Amino acid sequence: VFPWLMDHLPGSHQKIFYCQEFLRSFARKEVRSHQERGSPDEPQDFIDFYLAQIDKSKADPHSTFDEDNLVQTIFELFLAGTETTTTTMRWAVLNMVDTHTRTRVQKELDTVLGPSRLICYEDRKNLPYTNAVIHEIQRRSSIIAVGVPRECVKDTMLQGFPVEKGTIILPNLTSALLDPEQWETPRQFNPNHFLDQDGNFVKKEAFLPFSAGHRVCLGEQLARTELFIFFTNLLRAFTFRLPEGVKEISTEFVLGGTLQPHPYKICQVLIHSSNLCPRL
Ligand code: HEM
């Protein structure tokens, strides 16, 4: 009823407000420095394109392109793009403690890429096992269990069920990612879910960590590229082990903004320094 009241009440939400303001003020500074630089002949990044669009739509009184919306969009891209990829990488490292899977990935990377060549996203086509492992990490961790709520825009029939206009829909992504009719061992980490009998990578329709349709994750391609590049570079240079004394780890999630792994300490042991990506 009085959202502004929260600004004045003490509590842990104050830390969230502080972090939000930190990120927004960073975005504002970036926008300012782009404005000071002036509009380049060729827009170089998202901010350049957005500022050009603000300029173009100045005469339109209904335009939503303005500086506040630009700052908010940058904020949302950071929010949607960091928590998700980091959480997936944390699951990746936890799963790579398993010696069998990790060794197979490392052997494939060694055989196909050799010791020191830079890895690019195209390489995934020659790395079916590694690609399958990355997909299985995303499937099994199912970090966004329920997608963003959407509203049905017209009366619809869905698999025999009537859905009235105005109904709020919450897509249950986990129900597809762990569907026992779609996956051989739905609750078990198993890269074979994405491999045929000859070891070729196979796409699966029920693989929906980024959701689907018009409002599918905007950053899907970026996220897929990041996950592949980060994962392969890490596995080429390091091996992952549990610290001494730790025998077992839980693969159950901790409920947060995303489904996260338990906060374990993992030992990252350098295999070969020549495999270190110069940019890592
Ligand atoms: C592993 C990484 C990621 C996962 C699993 C993921 C997953 C999702 C999911 C499930 C949605 C909801 C889609 C829907 O409402 O149907 C979504 C939306 C979105 N994601 Fe991602 N995401 C990831 C990375 C990223 C990255 C890297 C960015 C951008 C830098 C990004 C930007 C967005 C945006 C802007 C939306 C809202 C799209 C809209 O409402 O039209 N995401 N994401």
From TrEMBL:
- Xref: InterPro entries: Cyt_P450, Cyt_P450_CS, Cyt_P450_E_grp-I, Cyt_P450_sf, Cytochrome_P450_fam2
Alphabetized PROSITE patterns for the sequence: CYTOCHROME_P450
Pfam families in UniProt: p450
Question: What positions does the entry give for heme binding?
Answer: 217
Main location (coarse class) = endoplasmic reticulum
The Gene Ontology CC terms held by the record are: endoplasmic reticulum membrane
Superkingdom assignment: Eukaryota
Where does the UniProt annotation locate this protein? Endoplasmic reticulum membrane; Microsome membrane
Q: Which UniProt keywords apply?
A: Endoplasmic reticulum, Heme, Iron, Membrane, Metal-binding, Microsome, Monooxygenase, Oxidoreductase
Membrane topology listed for this record: Peripheral membrane protein
List, in alphabetical order, the Gene Ontology terms for molecular function in this entry.
Answer: heme binding; iron ion binding; oxidoreductase activity, acting on paired donors, with incorporation or reduction of molecular oxygen, reduced flavin or flavoprotein as one donor, and incorporation of one atom of oxygen
Known cofactor(s)? heme
Biological process terms from the Gene Ontology for this record are: organic acid metabolic process; xenobiotic metabolic process
Is the Cell wall biogenesis/degradation keyword given for this protein? no
UniProt record similarity statement? Belongs to the cytochrome P450 family.
PANTHER family xrefs: CYTOCHROME P450 508A4-RELATED (PTHR24300), CYTOCHROME P450, FAMILY 2, SUBFAMILY AB, POLYPEPTIDE 1 (PTHR24300:SF368)
Q: What is this protein called?
A: Cytochrome P450 2J2
The protein's organism comes out as: Gopherus evgoodei
